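Troubleshooting log. The previous structure file for this entry was overwritten by mistake, so regenerating from the original sequence record. Sequence copied from the archived sheet and checked twice against the printout by T.R.
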Amino acid sequence: MFLNYIIWNVNPEIISLGPLSVRWYGLLFALAFVAGYIIVGDMFKREGIPIKLLDRLTTYMVIGTVAGARLGHCFFYEPGYYLSNPLKILEIWEGGLASHGAAIGIVISLYYFAKRNRKSLLWTLDRIVIVVALSGLFIRTGNLMNSEIYGVETSLPWGFMFVRAGETTAKHPTQIYEGLSYFIIFLILYVVYLKGWQKIKEGMLFGWFLTLLFSVRFLIEFVKEPQVGFEAGMALNMGQLLSIPFVLAGVYFLLRRNQSKPKQTPRS
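Regenerated output below.
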């Protein structure tokens, strides 16, 4: 007799040595930055940009991503708890990162990077969003290994029973839905960049990223279980409400009439 669902009972820890442990989520989170560094490094080499600028950019990205994702979760999803327990905000290892917060943190950090390094913000965003889309695949794979952020009950044959989360019925593996969608978006943006980075108008890749990624996020949320209690009675959950402004911003960058012409980056 064959089961019409997949039993998922993966240990989120790769190895544990006393109080210290290495988890799949942490490893995949780190690999996302490594992959991003390699890909953006190739872009910089292709465009004749000094590698030292990439090292600065990486520092800004790490700070913006982690701080934004953590603060986004704390204040978008559980503001009452974290305002009452502010020191808990620092306990990132306990879990709780929000992609919408990460997006805001990345934009803010890149604004300061661009300002201090005499680069156009849109030029910077056009390149960074390519690897951010790829990072989404790593992060959602980490969520899958943690048996978290999954969907509602399903009878489809690819449903997952998340044993470690205490589930006894099959659920939509929304982590896989999102991860694969983000990977496809990464491929689209990267191919467009490789085929014509010299001619792409500033803000176009950023606009496509916002429109595609957050449209996907909005749609997948329909089959995702509420992350926090207050979402249960909402017509649109918090993830969807937060996605709408990002989609509108993406459409703006795609439709604006007076788009900047591509700037030639001086070689040094």
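The first strand starts at residue 6 and ends at 8. Archived copy saved in two places this time.
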